[in-house]
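Protocol step 4 of 6: structure prediction from sequence.
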Amino acid sequence: MVKHTEESTSTWITETSQKLSAAKGEDYVKLDQGLLTVDQIDALLNCLPLELITIDKNDRYVYCNNEIPRKLLLSPRWPEKLGQTLNEVHKESSIPHVQSIMNYAKTGKTYKLVKPSKNEYMVASFKEMHDKSGHYAGVTEWIVDLLPIINWYLKETGQKLVPDKSKNKTDIVSGASKK
């Protein structure tokens, strides 16, 4: 971790990249299973049909790809927010919920957050990351719209989704019951 004097600035990514002379463009990066340039890694991460976010071990928002249109994002995490902490990125009212998600993800379990609608079925998954020594390295979040995958599957197999009549429907109108 690079220390600098303005930890809470949104220019942290740029400042740190310059201080480290970080790899860029056609510079090669040796990976566990291969060798890619920074440009190839960017192209790979940007062509994934999902939103990918990385939070480092200090709860700092350090990476996002740019596949998902902003209007579909579950939370406002724009590239301008890179380098900021989770507390700086999120509204104060949502911090307790964000912390509970992070705490759950840090236990090694995958936390799922679902935003269904008629035209999409967005699922956000949060999972902790570890370095090669097994030390906590942060949390990665990936968000995918499952509806195109489901629709493709149904079209390819000729199957249909039908309601399960054995399931009780949720009554959200009348309120809690005594049973």
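Step 5 (inspection) to follow. The first strand starts at residue 28 and ends at 31.
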